[in-house]
Write a structure and sequence with these properties.
This is TIGR03085 family metal-binding protein. Residues 12-87 form the Mycothiol-dependent maleylpyruvate isomerase metal-binding domain. The chain is built from nine helices and four strands. It has helices at 4-19, 32-44, 46-49, 58-69, 73-82, 93-112, 125-142, 175-182, 197-205, and strands at 149-153, 159-163, 168-172, 192-194. It has a four-stranded mixed beta sheet with strand order 2-1-3-4. The radius of gyration is 17 Å and the shape is globular.
Length: 211
């Protein structure tokens, strides 16, 4: 079994450590400390993490995020590196790989691409295929509610429909870039957009794209 999630986990921890607690990220309103706290809470506090999806749990999530955000930054980084406790479902390699490959890749790029001197990473074809496989399965979910049709297309011609509708915008790029675009990082993803000018502008500005 691949170990993409573990690789991206360690890379994310290294980047957060190097950047320090107050560096910008692509997550609106979050500095690196906030992002680190989010990663730890997601793995270690399932009683609160559900607040990202369930409105009634949002106040609890906010309290727990504040609690973890107040911890020493070095402690948060170490908790990310060591991974979830044994009682967490994320401690199972299969679940870790399925749930965290995309999570850690996206957040790694949230840190990298918020810096002024960032350059694209060279990703191996196997990892690109793994990201595409996950994007195919979640495309309709991340594209729900957007104001235009959206087709995601790899350079090899593989496509996934994120949202049916008109006018249609086609985003073309590597799987890794399409994933970032679909997960709301429109302005940082290296993709080419084809379609009506107004539709492209509307898509780039929407806040509904992604998680």
């Amino acid at each position: 079994m691949s170990t993409f999630a573990k690789r991206e986990r360690l890379l994310l921890a290294d980047l957060l450590e190097t950047a320090g607690p107050d560096a910008p990220t692509l997550c609106e309103g979050w500095r690196t400390r906030d992002l680190a706290a989010h990663v730890v809470v997601r793995e270690r506090r399932p009683d609160a993490a559900g607040g990202t999806l369930i409105k009634q749990l949002a106040p609890r999530l906010d309290r727990v995020m504040d609690e973890y955000g107040a911890k020493p930054y070095e402690e948060l980084i170490q908790l990310i590196r060591t991974g979830p406790p044994r009682f967490s479902p994320f401690s199972l390699k299969q679940i870790d790989e399925a749930a965290n490959t995309v999570e850690f890749y996206v957040h790694t790029e949230d840190v990298r691409r918020a810096q002024p001197d960032w350059t694209p990473r060279e990703l191996d074809p196997v990892f690109q295929d793994a990201l595409w496989s996950r994007l195919e399965r979640t495309a309709r979910l991340v594209g729900r509610g957007i104001p235009t049709g959206l087709v995601l297309r790899r350079p090899n011609g593989q496509t996934a429909v994120a949202h049916r509708g008109t006018p249609v915008v086609t985003a073309t790029g590597e799987a890794s870039e399409l994933l970032l675009f679909a997960y709301g990082r429109q302005n940082a993803a290296k993709v080419e957009l084809e379609g009506e000018k107004d539709a492209i502008a509307q898509l780039q500005e929407t806040k509904q794209l992604g998680f």
